[in-house]
Amino acid sequence: MPTFLQHALIVAAGGALGSVGRHFIGVLATRMGAITFPWGTLAVNIIGSLLIGLLVEAVARVLNESAEARMFIVIGFLGGFTTFSSFSLDAMNMIERGDVLPAIAYVIGSVAIGLGAVWAGLAIGRLVF
Questions:
Q1: By mean pLDDT, which of 60-69, 93-102, 111-120 is the weakest?
Q2: Cα three-residue angle 53-11-30, rounded to 5 degrees
Q3: Residues annotated in the binding site, as ranges?
Q4: Which of 4, 72, 90, 118 is deepest in the core (most CB within 10 A)?
Q5: Virtual CA dihedral for 77, 80, 81, 84, nearest 10 degrees?
Q6: What average pLDDT does the segment 5-30 reach?
Q7: Which positions bind Na(+) (predicted)?
Q8: Domain limits of the chain?
Q9: Which helix (H) or strand (E) holds 85?
């Protein structure tokens, strides 16, 4: 039976990979010209929302509810990959510089599309797995 330390290392490994993935998407978005609107953060949150729905189904159905797989993928990787705290900071920065309407669109779009992406990931996972 895995120990607390082994579980912590599993989560940490997944988190490290997720954080690196988030970083690269942010860099890519910036290089593509996303300077005044946080496209990288939006993309990561939508991708992460889709993946969490899809992967929760995969872990439950294909990996036989492996606690370690769930820790690595959902808590570790997706916890490191998604960026709600960055999302909140981006929205506040937009508001503080006077971009209130784009900030509102960003917040509403992130939440609405994120919820839709989780729903889609769950639905796809239920069909595929």
A1: 60-69
A2: 65
A3: 79, 82
A4: 72
A5: 140
A6: 95
A7: 79, 82
A8: 4-128
A9: helix 84-96
**Residue with tokens 């910036």, as numbered in its chain:** 30
pLDDT of amino acid 105: 97
Sign of the CA dihedral 41, 42, 47, 50?
Answer: positive
Token output for 104: 């509102």
| Residue ranges at the known binding site for Na(+) | 79, 82
Of 50, 124, 48, nearest in space to 87 by CA? 48
Burial code (b: 16+ CB inside 10 Å, e: under 16) for 40-74 equals bbbbbbbbbbbbbbbbbbbbbeeeeeeeebbbbbb
Question: For residue 47, what pLDDT is reported?
Answer: 92
Quick one: which of 2, 15, 6 has its CA closest to 80? 15
Best CA proximity match to 119, nearest among 56, 59, 76, 64: 56
pTM of the model: 0.77
The C-alpha atoms of residue 4 and residue 64 are separated, in whole angstroms, by 21
